Amino acid sequence: MRRLLALFVCALVCPPAAAAAAQTSFRSDLSGASLTAGVAPTDTAAVSAASSASQTNPDAPIPVVESKVPPAGRRLSSDDVLAIAAKLPKMRAVRAEYPGSYGGAYLKRQFHWQVSYFSKGGKKEIGQVSIDDLSGRVLEQWTGFQVAWTMARGYPGAFGRHVNALYVWLALCVLFLVPFVNFRRLHSMLHLDLLVLLSFSVSLAFFNHAHIYASVPLAYPPLLYLLARMLALSRRG
Predict the structure, then answer these.
(1) Closest CA to 106 of 66, 55, 153
(2) Can you give the pTM of this predicted structure?
């Protein structure tokens, strides 16, 4: 009973805590790059401030004023990447939801560009696009909560690193299951409990591939099952 209660509480508490930590970290990076300060991307003061921030955080995006001339060492100009991002249906849709929104171009490391779209007045970042400088190919495009919450983008190794590799995770599931299997009573509730606990792996798999809208609902059936089991066990006690 106590073990089931502990698992249920951890499942409810841990994800929100991780989300809060991720959002705090990401907002700190944006603050250093002057992305959410409501400053227009063409403001030279913002560019200067972001350049200073990039010295302490090499991953911080550096704002670039709108220009047809590529920055030193780059093939594309800020106007080029803004034009590429503006053609994306996903960005056009989110901008239609926020009248008065505007975009800005930012330099990133490894010859990447970032185009960020902000709501009117720069109060909220509503869209983000990553573009390869050499090919002009769109690498990523995000809207909604996946703009601020980078941990929801399915980056490899963001959680657990190699533990989330399929061959490692399946092996761990087997090691978790086998010691508790009673081959004399294969139809016992214990085995069902174990399978339900392992079913959280399905939600995790969708989360690791950035399918958040599928991942979250898939976590509720096992949680409801655990709740029902705890209530049933409490009545017996």
Answers:
(1) 66
(2) 0.62
